[in-house]
Every structure is written in structure tokens, then in C-alpha cells.
Amino acid sequence: MNMQPPSRFGSGSAQMPVAFDRREMSQILSVYGRMVAAGEWRDYGISNLRETAVFSIFRRTAEHPIYRVEKHPRLRMRQGMYSVVGMDGRILKRGHDLRSVLRVLERKLIRAVDSD
């Protein structure tokens, strides 16, 4: 006997896209807001895909993102589901705790404030 509750999306492999929850968005937007106030960042975009949620950060509108904050729930038990990816595709920081992963961006804020 199948004890799983029925899917809201019918049968098959259809699933809801991955998204950042309210707490995660609050942490991301806190760092984002400080960088906007420092004049470093101007725009952002959010993508909720089937296996990944992405918060893209732009220096100017209509260019490639300079950073991406990504959430990969499938990596939760391995190296951590959160990562910050640079413009060149390199993973700058990865981990289980979003706040600690975002610290790599906060170091950029300290540098931006000190350089004036």
C-alpha cells in the first residue's frame, strides 16, 4: 500500500521549482542593499528553476551578472546547497550555511568602502 500523499501536480515527475525562502531572501537582500548603498551594484534577477534557485547580481542593467547566489538542494548532504559564483563561473564560496557563504560578498563591501 502506498502511504505517500498524492502530488498536487498530478502523476509523473513534475515538481515545483526551487526557490529561496523568506529567511534566505532576507539574508541575500541585506547584503545586496548594503552594496547598492555603496554604489557597487545596481540590479538583480531571480530565477527559480527545477533544480536550482539563482539570485543574479548586476553592476549595471543589461549586462552579465557579476555574482550569482545559487541554491542547489540536491547538494545539501554533500558540500552544501549554497554557493556564490563569480562572473567567470568559478565558485567563490560554497557551504551549508547561507550567511557564511554570503560573507565572501561582504568582504567586497569592506573593500568598496575602504577604497574611497
From TrEMBL:
It comes from the Bacteria. InterPro entries: DUF2794 (IPR021252). Pfam families: DUF2794. This is Uncharacterized protein DUF2794. It comes from Ruegeria conchae.
